[in-house]
Predict the 3D structure of the following.
Amino acid sequence: MADMRNAGNLKDSTGAWVAGLTVASGLWLFAYSNLGEGADFLVTLIGMSRATPIGEALRFMLFEVPKVLMLLLAVVFAMGVVHTFVSPERTRSMLSGRRTGVGNVMAASLGIVTPFCSCSAVPLFIGFLQAGVPLGVTFSFLVSAPMVNEVALALLFGMFGWKVALLYLAMGLLVAIVSGMVIGRLRMEGYLEEWVQKLQEGAVGGDFEAEVLSWPLRFGEGIRHVREIVGRVWLYIVLGVGAGAAIHGYVPENFMASLMGRGEWWSVPVAVLLGVPMYSNAAGILPVIEALLGKGAALGTAMAFMMSVIALSAPEMIILRKVLKPRLIAVFAAVVATGIMLVGYVFNMII
């Protein structure tokens, strides 16, 4: 009799969780799909215009901060629930495969269908680490997700044709795969922050057997992961997006176009350095690239600048600082920057 009562209570509890999560998911989707309109409304309510640099920067901040935080909440909760089903060892096996580089190819390919900017990709990066995915594989995703996605490819195809789009796809994936493999070979797991190392070791949340946990316990574990992880990184997200908003709208196109001509060898590294302090996604930066090309910039140099903006931005580094120690951030930046410069030179030679 007691067992029947417990089973009934468990069923009621599961139903309550499902109903609550259904409502929460609907609200999440509604809010996420209206972030742009909400940011516009708030800027107008304050009495500012997007035609001014400060108005555009404020709108950028009001849009990006909730977007990244909402993504972080959803991904960390989902990964917390998944963690109760799949051990870090099994997840690592699924992504890394039995042959060297298979996991990097899979992770980089996954990035194609995730149209996130660099800061938005960080929540998934944390989620992969949380699930025990090898460090090098997670970096392949972190590079690929903002740099190579269907939005970027569609816009490149529309603006420059299929040859440019296809070459960008191939080179972007190559940079993501090779960068992840290099970082994986360096075995720099010791340069993750201690709390992230505990996630990888399974110390946060412990080890679970799939058959002994009820759904309410699994959902509860997802909530606990949200409190643990989001509570640690939310301030860094706000600071990182704020840094991007502060310079948004102040891009001196004429000056940069003068530095991005085809003739000088140093134009590609300079373009990469100029892109690092900036922050945008592919859809936001491609119109700038088109304007730079119209003012005489070389295609490869402009592409290197774009890749630097969307895959190697300073705001992204600020957010990653909560997850990675400075030496690992420096290695990541150096490896990716080297790959991006090679892409720039290849584009300039071929096209």
